[in-house]
Specification:
This protein is mainly beta and 72 residues long. Strands 1-2 form a two-stranded antiparallel sheet. It is elongated, with a radius of gyration of 16 Å. The chain is built from one helix and two strands, in the order E-H-E. The protein has one helix spanning 39-45; strands at residues 12-20, 51-60.
């Protein structure tokens, strides 16, 4: 899947990236709906087994007029 950068509209959002070792080369479509996504169900459906790595971070939208801008 291609990376989609975080774009929270308000509040703090949690992001978790989970890496699985695929048993063979396969094409897995992006989920149509990401809210309430269940990683265990996804891994079981595609026979991915246990995760080999994961990373977690929080982010939130910066206040003001759209975030930081580089002034040259």
């Amino acid at each position: 899947m291609s990376y989609e950068s975080p774009r929270p509209t308000s509040g703090i959002h949690r992001f978790i990236f989970v890496l699985f070792r695929q048993p063979r080369r396969m094409s897995i479509p992006a989920p149509g709906w990401r809210q309430n996504f269940i990683t265990r169900d996804f891994a079981e459906y595609y026979n991915l087994g246990l995760p080999v790595a994961a990373v977690y971070f929080n982010c939130q939208r910066q206040g003001g007029s759209g975030g930081r801008r580089l002034m040259l």
